[in-house]
Write a structure and sequence with these properties.
The protein has two domains: about 240 residues, Aldolase class I (TIM Barrel, Alpha-Beta Barrel), CATH 3.20.20; about 80 residues. Helices cover about 50% and strands about 10% of the residues. The chain has 15 helices and nine strands. Strand 8, helix 9 and strand 9 form a beta-alpha-beta unit. Bound molecules: flavin mononucleotide.
Amino acid sequence: MTASTRLPWQPGSVPLMLAPMQGLTNRALRGLFIEQVRPDAVFTEFVRVKASARKNISGNDRQEVTSSTSQVPLVVQLIGSDIQALLTAAVTVQELGATHLNINLGCPYGRMTGNACGGGMLRDPGRLAPILCGLRAAIRGTFSVKARAGFTDPAELFTLLPLFEECGIDFLIIHPRTVKQRYAGQADHRITTEVVRRTRLPVIANGDIFTAADGHRVLAETHAAGLMLGRGAINDPFLFERLRGNAPVEIDAATRRIQLYRYLQALLSRYQELFCGDQQVLCKMKEVLCQVRESASERPVRQLLRSRTLALFAERLENFGNDGEGQE
Ligand SMILES: Cc1cc2nc3c(=O)[nH]c(=O)nc-3n(C[C@H](O)[C@H](O)[C@H](O)COP(=O)(O)O)c2cc1C
């Protein structure tokens, strides 16, 4: 297989991918997105690969991997720093059916980076090289990297580009903030442009794409091969369709409210099937709501977030929908 035939998107197309997001992009949410807006690829939340545990990936992560549908490619993202454990995990997830694997070189949070994995690995090319080359040799399908713009400086990322090419990485996803920056400031897509200029690998641009206009601007400015949508898609799943020109790029407040209500309702029923107990379902719904930015619906969204029971949440959601239906 050549790199272009094994990419998880059609040659010549501009893929729009749903980002991996811990706590959010579980199999229920991915399933809803696949049904409603069909991203060109979806990612698991990061699969934590532990060196110590007997089973080096959890039972739940195994279920996430096997939940792949034939409709949309599922990319399984690994995070870890122990080469043997990562190799074992790569074999395991492929046995479970994964064909597209990705490594997280971006996570900015202490527990991960302190252990020199996730974004912490960007500081240590000597350690990263055998991990990437070892994984490449163990992975039969695509192997991609999702990276931030260096640990403290984009130069750290630029230095790694030849390594990514030499190791046979198939594509790169760039979130152009440094690890130290976490989520502060703006994603600086001039860095994405520079990565596109410096590498022959396909680059997928990610970061701060909240509207169709943002997405078109980033594509035009960076010449990236495609986009990855994170918080913007959780806020508005139809962002995929807006970017494709299949849905209006701007909608009025009443339509937004109806769309938001229907999205949250559909997600709630999927979460009730997947998660155990009202409190867990409530908690998972609130994680999604935390990403909803909507000035017109700010008050009802705040109320939903303050609901202490799932019953109250469901009642408030129903009221939110009824008010909206009245306005449609
Ligand atoms: C709640 C949350 C969880 C995330 N979890 C992951 C993850 O598991 N793996 C990963 O590579 N990035 C993760 N990210 C980063 C996103 O994939 C993405 O790179 C980042 O949010 C920037 O894109 P956006 O502005 O479109 O959201 C997470 C981000 C958020 C907000």
